[in-house]
Amino acid sequence: MLAWSVVEHERPLAAAGELRNALAAVRWGADYLARAHAADETLYVQVGDGDSDHSCWQRPEDMDTPRTSYSVDASRPGSDVAGETAAALAAASVAFRQFDPGFSAMLLGHAEQLFRFAKIHRGLYQNSVPEAAKFYPSRGDEDELIWAAVWLFIATGGEDYKAFIAGDGNVGGAQTSFSWDNKFVGAQALVAKLILEGKLPDAGNAAAMKRHLEEFLCGVLEHNRLSPGGVLWLESWNNLQYVTPAAFVVAAHADHLASAAAAAAALRCGGAAQLLAFARSQADYILGANPERMSYMVGYGTRFPEQVHHRGASVPSIKSSPGKVTCKGGFGYLSRDGPNPNVLVGAIVGGPDGSDRYDDSRQNYQQTEPSTVTVAPMVGVLARLSQRN
Questions:
Q1: Which GO terms describe its molecular function (predicted)?
Q2: How many domains does the chain have?
Q3: What secondary structure letter does DSSP report for 355?
Q4: Which CATH number is 188's domain given?
Q5: How far, in Å, CA of 37 to CA of 85, rounded?
Q6: Is 62 exposed, middle or buried (0-12, 13-18, 19+ CB in 10 A)?
Q7: pLDDT tens digits for 73-125?
Q8: Measured between alpha carbons, how far is 296 from 268 in angstroms, rounded to an integer?
């Protein structure tokens, strides 16, 4: 999603002086994923164990929990995680194409190998890595495969990827959310853009994906899933992780429609202006235009979450308190009432409940836990909204 933010909104990121920072962050993640692809059919997919991690509350400098590495391969497949990694590396390769062609080509090579691996060896990764099942189980691999195929088509123009989109991939149907476990809306948005640009035919699977995207967007615009205060409401646990990617797709498709021929430049429920207005309303809500009058982005505005459920933020820094914080001893900082000693600038917390209420308590992890999956698409949303039109 961060790479897509760069690909989609390179100009406003550059105008804001943030393109270099965005690319540096994409490079860090893409380099990690490329290194995790240790061989053609070997991908490391997890480091550490969720149960042992959750049994400790320490800052990263003091961590002494097991750092066991887990991988998928031909005999223990993980086509979902391999497909997702292929999509991430292909998207990053597009982001770097004009800035670092050598790095871009390296990422693309890994992406193509991983896509082949995923297609040949099907199977959900939690069946090969049971340690993942309790925390991040996957409900299927078809969304990741079509997501990867679309990004690889964008990166290469290859006929084999075009053929996968046209005939092999599950197009997903009408979705209600776009998330770490469901990539169909993202793939549908990219396919719709490719149709509007004349790079894919408005027929068959591609046309179905475009139609399903429009159903998702109209569901959002018709405001039938909003909290009283106006935020998209889907889940009680970290609801904002669904809001920011939805806002990203809404804003991106507004631009896709605005750039298309007039006959294609509207949905049955509105056009580019309505889409962009909705994306702005969600960003405004997150940044403070909400019943709590609180910014859910930490460090932004005059009032923001102070008890973020985050170990490194809640435990005093090693500079101010150099003594080791033990695995169990750190739980005192989790239960302590009061602001975190370290401000986790830029993080977005899970957010309020369906009635727009927010309990700023470190113990309330459903609302106060942040995630990278929430903030990555917000980079693109804010970049787009920084433009005047």
A1: cellulase activity
A2: 1
A3: T
A4: 1.50.10.10
A5: 9
A6: middle
A7: 999 999 999 999 999 999 999 999 999 999 999 999 999 999 999 999 999 99
A8: 33
- CB count, 10 Å around CB of 368? 24
9, 37, 256, 309: the active-site residue: 309
Neighbours of 134 (CB within 10 A): 12
Q: Using CA atoms, how far apart are residues 171 and 212, in angstroms rounded to an integer?
A: 9
Counting Cβ atoms within 10 Å, is residue 171 exposed (0-12), middle (13-18) or buried (19+)? buried
Q: Hey, is 163 helix, strand or coil?
A: helix
- Cα atoms found within 13 Å of the Cα of residue 301, Cβ hemisphere only: 20
- Helix boundaries (H) for the chain: 2-8, 10-15, 19-36, 50-54, 79-96, 101-120, 125-128, 130-133, 142-156, 159-163, 184-196, 204-221, 240-259, 272-287, 311-314, 331-335, 365-368, 372-385
Element (H, E) at 46: strand 42-47
Would residue 54 show up in a list of annotated catalytic residues for this protein?
no
Question: What CA–CA distance (Å, rounded) separates 236 from 367?
Answer: 8
d(CA 315, CA 151): 40
CA 244 → CA 22, 183, 214, 241, distances in Å?
A: 17, 14, 18, 6
- To the nearest 10°, the Cα dihedral for 91, 94, 100, 104? 60
Q: Is the pLDDT of residue 313 over 80?
A: yes
Number of other CB atoms surrounding residue 378 within 10 Å: 25
For residue 229, tell me if it sits in a domain.
yes
Which residues are 70's β-sheet partners?
Answer: 46
pLDDT digits (tens, 9 = 90+) for 31-59: 999 999 999 999 999 999 999 999 999 99
User: Would you tell me how many other CB atoms lie within 10 Å of the CB of residue 21?
Assistant: 12
Residue 217 is part of which domain span? 171-308+344-388
Q: Tell me, yes or no, whether 130 lies in a domain.
A: no
For residue 218, is it within any domain? yes
In a domain, 356, yes or no: yes
Closest CA to 364 of 229, 238, 211: 238
Report pLDDT for 85. Answer: 98
In angstroms, what CA-CA distances link 37 with 64, 126, 354?
A: 25, 18, 40
